[in-house]
Design brief:
Radius of gyration: 47 Å
Helix content: over 70%
Order of helices and strands: HH
Number of helices: 2
Shape: rod-shaped
Largest sheet: none
Amino acid sequence: MIPLPTFSPILAALAISVAANAALGWAYLGQRDYTTEARTALRDMEGQRDGARQVASACSDSVDDLRELADKRARDAAPARAAAASAAQGHNTRADQILAAPQPVPGDACASAQARVDDWLKGRAKP
């Protein structure tokens, strides 16, 4: 018969120590993998955040450029708007005079309109 080895307390402690170290090593490797994945995800999210900031900054700059262009165009167009308003005022005054005047041909709206157009055309033909 083969003699069975006897287990001494030192062998038992060594076996428990090896098992505990194996469990701790396994836990360490799992935690290391989780930490690596978390760091990679964090870098990805930081990249997305930085990209979004760059896009938002470019958009803001473009909006500022558009505002400056709109302000410049408003300044450039102010004299033309003032001239158009002045011309419109003259036209409005003339229209009010025409509408307030009695019909040139009483009782005939078409003949009155034709007479007013003829007068207007004569006024435009003057140098």
